Each structure stands twice: as structure tokens, then as C-alpha cells.
Amino acid sequence: GPLTIVVPRRIGGHVGLRLPSHPVARSLLSHCGFPLATPSASQSRSAEPTTAQQVKEVLDGQISLILDGGPAREGRPSAVVRVDGDSVEIRRPGSVPNAELIEAARPSILFVCTGNTCRSPMAAGFCQLAVADAHKGGGLPYRVLSAGTNALEGRSADKLALEAMREVNIDISRHRTRSLTPTLIDSADWIFTMTRAHRDSILSVMPTCADRVQLLSNRSEDIPDPASNSVELYRRVRDKIATCLRDVVRLVGGSGV
User: Fold this and answer.
1) Among 76, 143, 212, 225, which one carries the catalytic annotation?
2) Which member of 113, 118, 127, 244 is catalytic?
3) Catalytic entry in 119, 178, 199, 238
4) Mean pLDDT score of the chain, rounded to an integer?
5) What pTM, to 2 d.p., does this model score?
6) CA distances for 116 relative to 57, 79, 155, angstroms
């Protein structure tokens, strides 16, 4: 889409990367079979052209061909973001809102269970508290999410899960269930599953994310589903999740938390 990401080159300097959404540009790239290195269609201090005719007026005689895909959809140039290590800087505002760019730049931690009503929201609740404590006054640098492999959208957390978490002063009453999707998986930097079956189901759909998916327990133990009428079982699962989260925070902490 309308986003240019500027990153350092290994040989020095910087390069801007684009992955266009326009069907004409994508068709051209697919026929090339290799990345294209392209200059800007504008000249210094001139307005950004948004039609083929404007490009011709600016660069007539300097280029041999114009591939006309119609007017720029947004009527504005792409947003330009410079990324260098952990630093993200918006160099030029564009059609993608700045707030959306900043939100997308935040690394995300995703917890996965089955129905997304107890185990994964409890894990997310503990993790949000840990991250907030580590960055008091500076906002949350990480997004903490949860989802279920077989979840119905928009349900509240299980009542006994709510009760068990309130006992440790963590409120998950605002949680609403979310179904696990390829988009969620693709956008997550760390994915922690409650059981091996959850991990296997993710890898069966997206095997390329194997380096980002692991069991919440570093002892390779499944965290059982507490679905029952016993709050005591929820407490045991809660406490096990809390113990596992200490290792998660240490792991993610090595990346800046």
C-alpha cells in the first residue's frame, strides 16, 4: 500500500522499500520476477504528481515509457517511515494516518488458547501488567493480544476466570474474545500457545512462522483447559500461567521490554 519504509543498507546509506497494492504495479512486478529499483516521479521542490499526465509534464524527455494505472487512488504520496534498529520516525505524512503507523510499529505478543475465554486472556492480563510496570509513565511499548483457535467473536471472559484474576488484582472484564486469523499470526512477533495442539494447528496453516511460535511453558508442558464449575481449578491454572509468564517477560525483555 501507500507506505515507504526507509532502512539502512549493509553497504551504507539507506534504501526505501515499497510493496504496492495497485493491481497494475503488482502485475508488473510479477512479470519482472525481481525487485525494481525506482526513483521518485517528482523533482525537488515540485508538487508530487498524482496522474500520468502530471508525470509527463515533469519528466518529459527524461523517461522513455509511462505505464498509466490511472490517478493515484488516495491523491496523496505514500507515507515515508524511517526504521533504524528500534527507532521509528515518520519522515513524511501520507494517506496512512500517523497514529496507525505508530501502532503498527509496536511489537506484539500474542497468547493463544481454544475459546479465548480463560487461559489466553489470563496470560494477556499478567503480561500487560508486567509490561506496564516496566514502562511506567512511558506508555505501553508492546501490544499484548490474545485469540482462540476455535473462538466465537465478541464474548466476555469466563466468569470463573474473571473471579480468579480479580483475586490477584487484575481486571480482564473488558476482554472480548477474538478468533485466531492468519493476519493476527503474521503480525505477531511472539506467539505463545497453551498446548502443543494449539502450536501444531498454527504451524499447519503457517509453517513459516515456526520461529515465532512456542509453548507458554518453557518445560514443554501443556496448560490444561480449566473449563469446569470449580474456581479452585481456575486458580491452579492461573498460578501456573503466572509462573510461566516470568519466563516470557525475561525472553521478551531481551528484546527491549
Assistant:
1) 225
2) 113
3) 119
4) 88
5) 0.71
6) 56, 35, 9
